[in-house]
Specification:
This protein is an alpha+beta fold. The protein contains four helices and 15 strands. The strands form five sheets. The chain has a five-stranded mixed β-sheet. A four-stranded antiparallel β-sheet has the order 7-6-14-15. A two-stranded antiparallel sheet has the order 1-2. The longest helix is centred in the N-terminal third of the chain and has 31 residues. The radius of gyration is 43 Å and the shape is elongated.
Amino acid sequence: MDHIKDILKGLHEEFGWFIWGLAGLGVIWFFNGGPDRPVAHEGAYLKPLAPVDTGEAYGTYYAGTPISKKETLNLPEAPADIVRKAESTLASFVTRSKEAVAIHANSLLAKGIYLDGPGGAKASNPDAEYLRIVASPSASGPIRISGLVLAGISLPEGIFIPRAVFLPLTGQPLEKQNVSLQPGGRAIITSGASPFGASFQVNSCTGYLNELGTFTPALRKECPDGSNCRTDKAKGFTYNMCVGAHLNDKGFYSGEWRLFLDQPKEIWRNSSEIIRLIDAKGNIVDAITY
């Protein structure tokens, strides 16, 4: 113990002046602003104090940029995760496609109404995009389609099949009614707007309506007497006049309806689509895939 005391006493005698000097400098530094002085943040080095030099800071140093706790590093998904998601989506589509094929086969066997393939569903223009619904020739009677819903992957909420004008006449009020397909009848359902201004039933005079705009598929151009409707119109014979002359002819109505959904953009995907025809109770009447 005495030996340790002797060592400490010796150190104090040899270096005490140095320790007290450092302490004094520390006191002076503290009372001159210490770490709060601007110079403490201005550079990496200090010049000697007066009277040798100015005591200013000089040089630069890299302090880094503090990272906020709220910042997160957003890395892209790992390739394996992307592949798994793609496989899951594909598996889901394949499963639903198989279900659609089975439903369509059952619909054909049931001899009711069915979607007649994709039709023009792959078109990008809504005025050229269409589906066909057909009533089987062996159906027991008329089948109402107004109020049924068409839905797809691209339109999961679905859209109602509209009502239509039974006998369209230009310049006359367009009174709409529910559409029913007779056995063997069909409806062409276009995504866009009607050039005529409403959905309607096709008759032997509607070729005149081609003058109003483009129908897809085109309305037949032949008039009841076998002439071209456009030529007859040039002679002053109008659509309404044609209807008045041939309304009571046998086969005046063709059994076809042109229905329009009035959508500004295409509805159905150009590929990898599943389209379902659904009744008011939510039952799937038919489905197709492509």
